[in-house]
């Protein structure tokens, strides 16, 4: 038994480790081009989802954090998306308006208020202008990111960062008067938030830049291709062009000036990392709210309580995601991220209740519906 335990999981190079993760993802995508109508099909997809999410946990500490991050990030984000996709088949093997899982990886938050027509066709000049602007933004963000990273690397000292989780430090502040955060840890946390913002932004800008280059190339080579093409190749080329146009010109940016937030709801619901909103909403907020409001005769207070449960469920799932990333990348399970996001969920709810009591909102349900939209 000892020999088996010591060899599990088996040793492998990082390239093979990443290849295994990609193979699991490709297998799930390949099996999801049709709805799972048999138990075996559904069980296979669920098994692939579990394997995809648990692989980074099994191999935590085996590889450098910067390398592990690429696999762990996809493991939890795409893993949640797999769960989101499979949730549709929880009660039925067929769903209306079926879409393969592959499609859900790209069309996640179309900006219906952009004002552009469905058949909007940008000129080469507009596409080139978009590419130039994105290149400038990407370069500026890269310079700032590298500068902040070097400053943080030079002055970070793990011994000066409190070891107890964030939530318990807050409790100690009320109990003993001890400060929950030092000036140095405050600066480090601020730098870390800037780094997260810049890292996600420049990665997103890279995808936008690549999409712009692809669109410009296709627009030059195939300027007249349209949706009435009978050729299979030209039909697919048109689909790629439409996707690139939607991504570049008809999709909200991943951040919306989070530093201008006027409330916790404004920050978490509309300005900070909107890519995950559907995950929080469909896997936590909506199920919990519906579970707590099954009885239609509930009082207004009970309905508000159900909304609070949904909000806390969304922050709970977000806490799991961030703790998962820290655990798999750093091989340290401190629960710092977990308590941090739960505490912010409590702040979110308290803020909403204060607004209701002051007449800003009529009831919690009117604001919470849009919490994760």
Automatic annotation (TrEMBL):
Record membrane topology: Multi-pass membrane protein
InterPro entries (alphabetical): Wax_synthase (IPR044851), Wax_synthase_dom (IPR032805)
GO CC annotation terms, alphabetical: membrane
Domain Wax synthase as annotated: residue spans: 254-342
Short name of any one Pfam family annotated for the protein: MBOAT_2
Protein localization: Membrane
Membrane spanning stretches: 40-58, 181-200, 206-225, 305-325, 337-356
Pathway: Secondary metabolite biosynthesis
GO molecular function, one term: O-acyltransferase activity
Matches recorded under PANTHER family: LONG-CHAIN-ALCOHOL O-FATTY-ACYLTRANSFERASE 3-RELATED, OS04G0481900 PROTEIN
Family listed: Belongs to the wax synthase family.
Protein name (Swiss-Prot/TrEMBL): 1665_t:CDS:1
Organism of provenance: Funneliformis caledonium
Top-level taxonomy: Eukaryota, Fungi, Fungi incertae sedis, Mucoromycota, Glomeromycotina
């Amino acid at each position: 038994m000892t020999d088996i335990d010591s060899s599990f999981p088996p040793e492998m190079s990082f390239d093979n480790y990443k290849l295994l993760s990609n193979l699991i993802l490709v297998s799930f995508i390949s099996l999801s081009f049709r709805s799972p109508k048999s138990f075996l099909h559904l069980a296979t997809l669920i098994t692939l989802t579990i394997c995809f999410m648990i692989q980074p946990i099994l191999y935590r500490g085996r590889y450098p954090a910067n390398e592990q991050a690429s696999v762990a990030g996809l493991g939890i984000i795409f893993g949640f998306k797999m769960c989101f996709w499979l949730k549709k088949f929880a009660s039925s093997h067929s769903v209306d308006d079926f879409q393969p899982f592959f499609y859900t990886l790209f069309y996640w938050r179309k900006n219906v208020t952009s004002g552009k027509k469905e058949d909007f066709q940008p000129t080469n000049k507009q596409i080139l202008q978009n590419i130039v602007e994105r290149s400038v933004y990407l370069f500026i963000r890269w310079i700032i990111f590298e500068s902040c990273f070097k400053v943080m690397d030079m002055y970070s000292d793990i011994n000066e960062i409190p070891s107890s989780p964030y939530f318990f430090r807050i409790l100690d502040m009320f109990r003993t008067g001890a400060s929950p955060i030092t000036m140095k840890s405050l600066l480090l946390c601020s730098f870390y938030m800037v780094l997260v913002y810049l890292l996600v932004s420049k990665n997103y800008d890279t995808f936008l830049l690549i999409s712009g280059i692809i669109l410009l190339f296709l627009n030059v080579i195939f300027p007249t291709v349209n949706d009435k093409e009978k050729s299979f190749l030209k039909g697919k080329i048109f689909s790629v062009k439409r996707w690139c146009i939607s991504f570049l010109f008809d999709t909200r940016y991943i951040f919306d000036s989070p530093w201008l937030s006027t409330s916790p709801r404004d920050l978490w619901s509309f300005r900070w990392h909107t890519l995950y909103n559907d995950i929080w909403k469909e896997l936590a907020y909506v199920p919990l709210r519906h579970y707590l409001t099954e009885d239609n005769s509930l009082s207004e207070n009970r309905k508000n309580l159900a909304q609070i449960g949904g909000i806390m469920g969304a922050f709970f799932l977000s806490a799991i995601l961030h703790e998962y990333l820290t655990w798999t990348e750093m091989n340290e399970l401190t629960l710092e991220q977990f308590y941090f996001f739960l505490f912010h969920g409590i702040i979110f709810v308290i803020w909403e209740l204060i607004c209701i009591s002051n007449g800003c909102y009529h009831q919690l349900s009117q604001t919470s519906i849009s919490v994760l939209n």
